[in-house]
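Re: the pair you flagged

First of the two:
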Amino acid sequence: MLGQNATHANFSVNDLAAAKTFYVSKLGFKVIRDNDHEMMLESGAGTRVNIYVKADHKAWDSTVFGIEVTNVGDAVKELSGIGVEVAKFDFTDENGIMTDPTMGEAAWFTDPAGNWICISSSAQV
């Protein structure tokens, strides 16, 4: 069924140039399609993200997509080193990392348009 096909995230921003700088120059995604209205990005693992410009963009109040990493602590340090601030919540530690014995670790940050991105690693079962 559909679960056997490739998937991609799809969300809007209010400034495509700022999004391109953020996702490509800071986070390291590869542009595979780019025009005045949208761009399709691809991660090294093959996941695709379609980002389109929308004049009346409103950021979601929850995660638009997640990035799986080997070590959340290392990823948080890397993000900090490139000027990306990881959010701190009541349920996170001083570095912004949530730890759950069944879900693993996770941390959240926003792109220039205010969209929430989650970095996470799965707990070993």
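Second of the two:
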Amino acid sequence: MSRVTKALEMVVGAYELGQYDSNVIGMAAEVIAEEEFGMKKAPRGMKDVDGTWFRDGRDHTVQVKAWSEDRVKTYRQFTYFRLRENALPDVLLCILVYCSKPGYEIIYNGSPRDVGYVEKNGRDRVIRFSHMRTPEEVASILRGLGVEEKVVRPRRPNASRDPKAPVVESDSRKPCSICGVSFPVEEFHYGGRTTNSYCTSCCKLHRQAYNRGGSEGTRLFREEMRKNWKN
């Protein structure tokens, strides 16, 4: 049995025991990076870099980001992570790891500078699922997870016609109090109000969380989203 197969079966076994922390997901993703892409793992505790691999005559630093099946099913095209802009690796490898069955999907394998956008503070780069794949590809992956949802292209205020061009923040922006991402103020104009604190995307997900679990569902949704950027 290969290391990748063992790691993926561990993920499924852990999921069957209940929803705990995501360390096993990250472990599986790093094993995939090692076995399938030849990544040499960095020393434990090294920040912003998970390893290196040799390409085009030189070593490239690699950061591996792992998403669980449940996470993507919950946050869909808005699933995201942050990278420190002043410590970007040469290569970003984002992997969706399945929990209901042994398996995975490569969401992105390339330069982190080609996707996402830099927040106005200049410190963090925010990268969403919809930044790394086309709307059609996102919709296809979601359908494979049993999620039927119309996927729209993300708003890219200063992007060129290149769909992978990075987005640079402009003036007149404010952060969403749920996801922590900074958007143009127009993103908060809805429902007859212009001072909403949730962006339109999070507002929609907030309503869906309420429909699934009432007030407790929305509380858990807010806590899960906020711990990604407040911790």
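The chain has two domains: 3-168, 171-231.

-B.
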